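Protocol step 4 of 6: structure prediction from sequence.
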Amino acid sequence: MNEAQPMTYHASRITHHPIVCIIGSGYVGLVTGACLTKLANEVTFIDVDSEKLAAIRW
C-alpha cells in the first residue's frame, strides 16, 4: 500500500490571490484587512454588527 505524500505548494506556482478571513471588524481587524487588500489579497470580514459590515462593503 502506498503512503500518502504531503502536498507542498511553492509560492511561484500560486496563480490566484490568497483569501483571508478576518473575524471582527474593529480597529485592529479593519486596519489589518485594509493592509491585506493593498497587498492584493481577497479579504472577507465576519462581524456581529451588520451595520458595520454594510459600511465597509465596497
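Step 5 (inspection) to follow. The chain has two helices and two strands.
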